[in-house]
Amino acid sequence: MESAEVKIRRAILEGNAEQAVALAKQALDSGLKPLEALEPFVAAIRHAGDLFEEGDFFLPELLMASGAMKAALGVIFPATEGGEDRPVHGTVLAGTVQGDIHEIGKNLVCALLTAHGFKVVDLGGDVPSDKFLEQAVIQKADLLALSALLTTTMIQQKSLIDRLQKSELRDRVKVMVGGAPVNAAWAKSIGADGYAPDAARAVDEAFRLMGKSRA
């Protein structure tokens, strides 16, 4: 008999969103806490990313896997979970910068931030700077989380921060950057307030930037 982990991995790798949702519900129904239920899904989507990097997975397959992962995340961390009683440490506006469609890492960051009590507004992938700026005002964002997975799109992080510097938003909005080619030196050079190399440390960095301690 297949374990839940094996079923989850197959659902994600095959891009089967319906099955991923069903398995996420089963995990929660079994009594697992959201972060515990998330673990095998994270392992599965990371494996999909590894396969893509090794050339054994192609972009359409990766996008389907990401879609299945996102569907599961919607079950594990529903946007309305907790209602008004849910602690909100700040509003995070997240997205992958213009020209870059990669969302796996960004989706994991959004899921973990939500799980730790942040209000997260996910703008998706290939997000123009104009949309970031517009939504930062509309959503009253405290923190922008900018992801770039390609060396050719990193410059979009700098471009957005440059535009922020020229607006009244910069004084009240922090900026955190991340993505495979991004590092601390790059973050500092473009004037970002923070940098995180992975989803788990993005949570720690978000708490730091909000001036709050992680419970």
Proportion of strand residues = 5-15%
Number of domains: 2
The 3D shape can be described as globular
CATH architecture of the largest domain: 3-Layer(aba) Sandwich
Q: Based on helices, strands and strand pairing, what is the structural class? A: alpha/beta
**CATH homologous superfamily name of the largest domain?**
Cobalamin-binding domain
- What is the chain-wise order of helices and strands? HHHHEHEHEHEHEH
Kindly, what is the distance between the CA atoms of the first and last residues, rounded to a whole number of angstroms?
38 Å
The whole-number mean of residue pLDDT values reads: 89
Number of strands: 5
CATH class category name of the largest domain: Alpha Beta
The total count of helices amounts to: 9
Write up this protein.
- By secondary structure, the chain is of the alpha/beta class.
- The protein folds into 2 domains: 4-76, Orthogonal Bundle (Methyltransferase, Methionine Synthase (B12-binding Domains), Chain A, domain 1); 85-209, Cobalamin-binding domain (Rossmann fold, 3-Layer(aba) Sandwich).
- 52% of the residues lie in helices and 10% in strands.
- It is built from 9 helices and 5 strands; from the N terminus they run ααααβαβαβαβαβα.
- It has a 5-stranded parallel sheet with strand order 2-1-3-4-5, sandwiched between helices.
- Helix 5 (104-115) links the parallel strand 1 (91-96) and strand 2.
- Helix 3 (34-53) packs antiparallel against helix 5 (104-115) and helix 5 (104-115) crosses helix 9 (199-209).
- It is globular and about 60 Å long.
- The N and C termini lie far apart (38 Å).
